Amino acid sequence: MATAAALVLTGLAVGAGVSAAAGTPVDKTLAFTCPFPLIGNQTLQVRIRATMSTPDTVGGDLVTTDFSATATVPPTATQGLALVGAKTIEGTAQAGVTLNEAGTPLDITIPGLVIPSTPVPDSGAFDTVASGPVPTATITKAGTTTVSVGGFSTTLTPKKADGTPTGLGTFTSDCTLNPGQDAQLISFQTKDGPPPTTTPPTTTTTTTTPPPTTTTTTTTTTTTTKPTTTTTAPPGTITYSYSIKGSSEIKRLHTDVAIRGGITAKLDLGTSRYTADLTLNPTSARFAIFGFIPVTTKIAFEPQGQTTGAVANGALDARSELAVKMPLISVFGLPISRSAACGTSKPSVVTMTSGPGFDVLKGGTLSGSYALAPLRGCGLFTPFISALATGPGNTIDLTLKAS
C-alpha cells in the first residue's frame, strides 16, 4: 500500500467481573511489530491501562476493571489508509496474556475486544482505543502470581466517507511483542486459604408405590443451525507513480550508463502483485576501445510489454524485458553506424529486487542484473560492435521516488 496500509490496536488484560476491593492501577506502554498489507512491518506503541484487584488466598479471583488499550498508529500507516480513501477504521481484536501461578504458566487468549469506528486523519499519527469484557481468573496455587502481556491479533476494516469498505477490504494483522521489554503487568502473593467446611450428608428413606406400566411414544425434532458466514470485501487496486534515477554498468564496455525515467504501477491489494508501465529516457555512453580509441553511442532502453512483480513484507521485486538500441555510434567523433535498427537481437530480461526497507508510499532502491544479446542491424560494423558489448553480468541500480 501499502500499504498501504493498515493499522492495529488491541486490549490486553485478565480478569473481569465484580470488583472485590480497591485494586492496583496498571499503566504500561509496550512496542509491538505488526505486519500490514503492502507497507510491511510497522512498530506500534500500545498503552495498557486498568485496575487489577488481587486475592489474598487460593480460590480468590483476580479482577480487572477500567480497562483500556490505546494504540498509536504511525504516520506511514496513516498515509497508506489515506491513499486508499479511508476516513474511518474499525474492527475487533483478540489478545494473549500469560498467567503464571507459582511457576506454572498458562497462556490465555482474550477474544471479543471491540475497536470502535475511529476517524483517520489525512496525515500524521493517531490513536485508537480497544475495550471489552474479559474473563475472571481464579487463582489455584499459593505463592507468586504474575500476569504478562503476549502478542495480539486484530481484524480491521478501513471505510470510506460513505461507509463502504476501501480496496483493502477486511484484513487481519498478527502482532508480536518487541524483545527486550518488561511485559509484566502485575505480581502478587497468595497463600493457602482455610479448609472448606464439611457438612455430613442427610439420609432420607422414602417408600414409593410403583406406578402402572405405560407406553410412551417420543417424537424427536432436529433443528439445524445455519453456520455464520463472514464476508470480506473484495480487494481492489491502487496506482503508484515513481520517478526513476540510476545507472547501469555494461560490463564488456567498462562503462556506466545514466538512467532516467518513470514508472506507474497498478497494485492488486488482494495479491500484493502489480503490473507497471515503464518509461526510460534515451541516454548515451562513452568508452574506449583498446584503452585509447574513444567511442560514443546513443542508447535507448525500450520496454517490451509491462513490468511485473510483487510487494511482500516491505520488499519489492520487478521483472522487465528491455530491447537495447544503439541508433548512433561514433569513433573519434565520426559516425560508424546511424541505423535506428541497431540493437540487441532479443530483449534483455532485467530482474531487480529491493532491500527489506522498500516503502511503497515513498519509494526506495532496486538493484539487479541482465545480459545483452548479440547485436544486429548496425551495418558493416555489426560483428565488431556486437563482440564489444554482448554478454552477461551487466548490472543496474535504480532509485524510485514517489511522484
From TrEMBL:
Limits of the DUF6801 domain: 32-185
Stretches with biased composition (Low complexity): 200-234
Secretion signal span: 1-21
Keyword Signal: yes
Segments of this protein annotated with the region Disordered: 188-234
One Pfam family it belongs to: DUF6801
Coiled coil (UniProt feature): none
UniProt entry tagged with the keyword Hydrolase: no
Entry keyword set: Signal
Protein name: DUF6801 domain-containing protein
Organism, scientific name: Kutzneria chonburiensis
